[in-house]
């Protein structure tokens, strides 16, 4: 651009404004400020606008960095000069500066901050029209990497906040919120701190009412709350507290609470503890505000999803953390908040249900969609939540069914499978981190106990829910329950059938709790109807056993027992018949039911029918338990009925029958026997038979006259039903044992063995040896027919089989108690035996069997040799059987049955295979029948095949040779490849070495280049530096002229020290002397001697004592008017300055100084207005003396500038000659 394009800015001003030195740019800016002030005075706004346009378009937006820096400082100076009129040019002031905020040069960014600061100080309120742009730029500059830029941005930020607070009525918050909502998600810590500070400021000013915009920025504030910086978290936490305080006292629209609730629910599930707690705390405060209840109820599902996981806080992995006291307190507040939200929300639901029932036309805040969402949340939490959360969720399900039965009816089918899954969950769930295997035993025990408590509570809640479901919305008024009750019982039975562990662990507990929650009669009647059609007779028997045990022992079923005991109504009789048909699956339970209902006659009949069924160990155990129950308080009336011997003969017979079934050495046998021994066994002698018969007839007539519901019970029909059920059990048992897996058989055998061990005390003692079953390992009780076997009968056996040499058993007397020990010395280790069945043991280590004293009597009757012969006879028999079959003998009855079933299956499989082989053999024989005419053809084919085989072998040989050749070539190629690889490695190694040397040479070359560039830059910098400008800096400070910072002059208000004045005069003397030497000037009459603060001037025209008179340029006297020598020195110095001026004018006619010095009037200097000032201190006032010295320094500055312009190019780059139109120092007015 030409110089005309920059008008009214001169070319010199433009050059100075774009100079690299800050001082020059600042001087140019001051010149612009002066120029604009003059234009403002004459109201020439067009020129000002042109200057603004030039500075903004050609300087600030320039690609040159120096232009941008000069333009920024120029715009700031222009704005300061404009003052209040700056608003006319705001479009030229603020936007260009904002564009420089994102400049790549950090200095430009800093000067932009400085410029904006000055502009904003002038514009004040007008700056708010660009607030969003300024805020966006500052939010980026506060995180700048350059510290100076960051500090400049902070200064602008503070000024902008002051402006906003001062003019709060003119600040448009609504226009700022979209930008804030966008920038609030920035992750930089400095930007977040900047945003939080602004939001806090706006919140503190009531006029802004930031609460109404809280929903738009709340989510972003939660993101800032999760910042890792503790200071930012604390600031944001305080901000949330301020907002909450304002919300409690202000009138807020309900829609705002709805929007904030969504955000709070979302953040309440955050992984950050502080965010989660803050969100929950806000939700709790919202719930405590009555005005929010109607808004929060539709969000109940979201509130549940936020609160329910919090109850598992103490069970998750965070328990492994060693809490500090602060963490522990925080944890307590966290749990307390979640519990309080849960309680308040439950109360709101309850109040809503009450309102719904009282006001039929009221508008309700719990629509079906909300209930559906709540059910989904609860279902998810029940399925996958931890134990504490699951308990709370189940409590909510119960609460909803209790308060909102009509609305929850449609969700029963959805919740049914989930609730049943809770019932079937294992009680020992996977342990949490607290109860791991590596935890201390006490802690593990505590965790296990707590988990069991959770499981029990969960089952109770599920049953309570089912009870509410069963009693709600009854369609049939005749029944106490709805269709879901029956469905529940059926599904429960299916669950018990498929999960026997659940039945064993919780079956009794579940049924007892159901009886407490619902009618026991309905429970048992429905269970009986369900089990009556059960196809799995084994499961039915187990269920009947459990139900009978509960019926006879549980206190919850006391009324039901009384009803069954008396049978006074038709309903009770029907109930008995219903239970009877189901109880038929378990004979012992059926007898107990008859005992309970006092049907002793039928009980006796049933006991007699026990002879037709198989008496197993389980059967005997059940009888044992029944006997124990007969001794309990429940059957007190039965024991008292034994006193009436005449009328209860069937009862006594039934008990005697049970006694006959029990093994003689069991505890139950002795208990029942002692009870029957107490029964009176006499009949009154004085009561005749006729009288007794008469009494019996009277009693029978009384029973006939009484309306007894027992008459409606057809016991004969029930007995036939019982027999059919038992026959069905027998048939199914045969099928089950035939195809039962080995584990089931082994389990039954173990059960039998355990019970038989109890009964061994009642087994008859026999001197016969007892052998061990070779499968199950139990001792065998041999049949009495084996006693008749003698040695003659075993001779054919011994002769027909080869028996290994065996040593005989030796009987010897041993032990202090006279016990006879049979030492086993047989070669077959599979045998073992015991002489007695009571308390016998076989020591597998030493092979001894103890024979008790009871056998000693038999041993006296038999000799040792006879016993040895008996043992040998049986051993030979079992050896023979073992040699004949693939399994060892002897075997017990159960193992034999199992073995026979297995052999039957093997036989069937073998028969099937034999049939298949026969068919294949027949097919093969039929296909091999070849006709004679085909022989020649087959021979020819055989010859061709032989030739083909020979040809193929030849080809195979050639291929093998070719393969060998290829293998040799392959090995040679591998060797060549290996050599090439080694050569390549060597080449790469040499290449890397050369590359390294090249890199080192390049690094060294770059280092030399950098050093050269640095030296050249230093040289250029030094070459452009002027020694005079650097050594002598002449400027002004208020009313004083300064040289190198030393002020010249004094004022009444400012008492400048004489040492400072002396130093300044010394610097001026040195400067003038140096300038004179530069132009080879010899002063007339005077010679300047620069000596710092003690410089002086020699008067060459006067001598004293042979020396030139010295005029000191320093003083220190209090009364300066008496110091004539100092005043003369000042006059002489001014005369020297005048001589310097004349010397320059002789070389350049255009040169002139701004202040004239009169040759005639020594020591006088005149300003542009014609006022004269004397440099002598004694002539004028201090103000005039100070101005004279200031003007003298100004003339020296101009002379210095001229000398600088005349220096050669290798010393300076400035060749401009100053003119009077562009002074560098502003003259004081």
UniProtKB/TrEMBL annotation:
Cell compartments where the protein resides: Endomembrane system
Pfam family, one: Vac14_Fab1_bd
One record GO biological process: phosphatidylinositol biosynthetic process
Domain of life: Eukaryota
Signal peptide: none
Record key words, sorted: Coiled coil, Membrane, Repeat
Coiled coil feature spans: 864-986
Complex formation: Forms pentamers. Component of the PI(3,5)P2 regulatory complex/PAS complex, at least composed of PIKFYVE, FIG4 and VAC14. VAC14 nucleates the assembly of the complex and serves as a scaffold by pentamerizing into a star-shaped structure, which can bind a single copy each of PIKFYVE and FIG4 and coordinates their activities. Interacts with NOS1.
Protein family (similarity comment): Belongs to the VAC14 family.
Protein name in the entry: Protein VAC14 homolog
Record organism: Rotaria sordida
Phylogenetic classification of the source organism: Eukaryota, Metazoa, Spiralia, Gnathifera, Rotifera
